[in-house]
Automatic annotation (TrEMBL):
InterPro entries, A to Z: Aminotransferase_I/II_large, Class-I_PLP-dep_aminotransf, PyrdxlP-dep_Trfase, PyrdxlP-dep_Trfase_major, PyrdxlP-dep_Trfase_small
Protein's job: Transaminase with broad substrate specificity. Has transaminase activity towards aminoadipate, kynurenine, methionine and glutamate. Shows activity also towards tryptophan, aspartate and hydroxykynurenine. Accepts a variety of oxo-acids as amino-group acceptors, with a preference for 2-oxoglutarate, 2-oxocaproic acid, phenylpyruvate and alpha-oxo-gamma-methiol butyric acid. Can also use glyoxylate as amino-group acceptor (in vitro).
GO terms (BP aspect): alpha-amino acid metabolic process
Domain Aminotransferase class I/classII large: residue ranges: 45-419
SUPFAM superfamilies: PLP-dependent transferases (SSF53383)
Cofactor(s) the protein needs: pyridoxal 5'-phosphate
Family according to the record: Belongs to the class-I pyridoxal-phosphate-dependent aminotransferase family.
Enzyme class: transferase
Protein name in UniProt: Kynurenine/alpha-aminoadipate aminotransferase, mitochondrial
Length: 427
């Protein structure tokens, strides 16, 4: 127990092309000015039409790109991310999660990180790296539809672990795992799951957040069955109550946690900046997958974010987060008070302590698909029918997801009033 074996989908050899790419990049950086390189495959940025940029930050600061910075921003960059952004994030990660040093690869003894084009890219690459057709993958559904979209084409079996308002239920996980013998998980032909995916805070769509106790129990079960846990935590920074619950990453003594973080909900979703954090051998392989597909996250957006973060420092960053939390807490409160006003007799819900979603079960409605996709539009209210978050989306589902991120409290109130009328008509 505790010894982790990384079982990749297939072995990605360290191909000559990868070695050459990395070695050349390194040589180019360390080379004396007298070296004449005919090696690079990058275009000449003198031919690009953009010259400089200055972006005004809401607090009056500016993020500027002079001609030299602009040339770099417009050029290819390292597949794992630009060094200054990575260093900044590694420090933040260390301060927030303080991952136990023993957790990281026996080879390197350290945590590794890479930048991804949103956490969605990180998730996709992690699944691509690990999941074979026919593998059993554990997750607590309902879950993020983007995860289902990433997993379905891989031809794996999605195995549901029941959850409630506090996320995945450890006793239910134990029950699911009892199908396999922990001493046989490494035997050839074993069908025991290698990975477990979960959204620990402000779940999408459920709004559920896992307690520290549950995380500990789930982690212990992962140790018994030598599973990796994919901790997909884009709502980590949107936890309304402090202190924030310890993360899986913070309890990882073996090197079995792969964590995905996102700047989408706190800095910008369109800039597409996310991170994968985990044991070095796993993150290095994610980087190979990036190198083979997008090559890297936009240099321009990485530099833009990096400049801002360096000027803020960690303290300034966390002060910004506090303001974002304050906004979402008020929005959540507005939605709950309108739900109390309009939906008490026709729906059930739990108040989310993080994120941007309220997950509601409509009483007496077996399936919300038609009601939401057709009738709700007539009443000019739009929600997401719960079925899209289920492993088997064709089964009837009485839930709907309501987001409190974009609408004003007045709009939220009107929307839930319309939803209430709609449900009453349908009953
Ligand atoms: N995971 C979850 C649970 C999400 O809700 C989302 C976005 N909706 C993502 C990952 C992807 O986020 P992004 O790629 O913007 O970081």
């Amino acid at each position: 127990m505790g010894t982790v074996v990384y079982r990749y989908k297939r072995h990605i050899p360290n191909l000559p092309c990868f070695i050459a790419h990395n070695r050349l990049a390194e040589l180019q950086q360390r080379s004396p000015p007298s070296l004449i390189s005919l090696a690079g495959g990058a275009p000449n940025s003198n031919t690009f039409p953009f010259q400089s940029a200055s972006i005004t930050v809401k607090n009056g600061q500016t993020v500027t790109f002079d001609e030299v910075a602009m040339k770099r921003a417009l050029q290819y960059s390292a597949s794992n991310g630009i060094p200054e952004l990575l260093t900044w994030m590694k420090n933040l990660q260390k301060n927030l999660h303080n991952p136990p040093t023993a957790s990281y690869s026996p080879e390197s003894g350290q945590m590794e990180m890479c930048v991804t084009t949103g956490s969605q890219e990180g998730l996709c690459k992690v699944f691509e790296m690990l999941v074979n057709p026919g593998d059993n993958v554990l997750l607590d559904a309902p879950t993020y539809s983007g995860t289902l979209a990433a997993l379905h084409p891989l031809g794996c079996n999605l195995v549901n672990v029941p959850s409630d308002q506090h996320g995945m239920i450890p006793a239910a996980l134990k029950e699911v795992l009892s199908r396999w013998d922990p001493s046989e998980v490494h035997k050839p032909g074993s069908t025991a799951p290698k990975i477990l995916y979960t959204i620990p805070n402000g779940g999408n769509p459920t709004g559920a957040s896992m307690t520290a106790e549950r995380k500990k129990e789930v982690y212990e079960l992962a140790r018994q069955y030598d599973m990796l846990i994919i901790e997909d935590d884009p709502y980590y920074f949107l936890q309304f109550e402090k202190p924030w619950a310890p993360t899986f990453l913070s309890m990882d003594v073996d090197g079995r946690i792969i964590r995905t973080d996102s700047f989408s909900k706190i800095l910008s979703s369109g800039l597409r900046i996310g991170f994968v954090t985990g044991p070095k051998p796993l993150v290095d392989r994610v980087v190979l997958h990036i190198q083979a597909s997008t090559m890297h996250t936009s240099t321009f957006t990485q530099l833009m974010v990096s400049q801002l973060l360096h000027s803020w420092g960690q303290e300034g960053f966390l002060q910004h987060i506090d303001k974002v939390i304050e906004f979402y807490r008020k929005q959540r409160d507005a939605m709950i008070s309108s739900a109390d006003k309009w939906l008490k007799d026709v729906a059930e819900w739990h108040t989310p302590s993080a994120g941007m979603f309220l997950w509601m079960k409509l009483k007496g409605i077996a399936d919300t698909q038609q009601l939401i996709m057709e009738k709700a539009l007539e009443k000019e209210v739009l929600l997401v029918p719960g079925g899209v978050f289920m492993i088997n989306s064709s089964e009837p589902c009485p839930y709907v997801r309501a987001a409190f991120s974009l609408s004003t409290p007045e709009q939220i109130d009107e929307a839930l009033k319309r939803l209430s009328a709609l449900i009453k008509e349908a009953l």
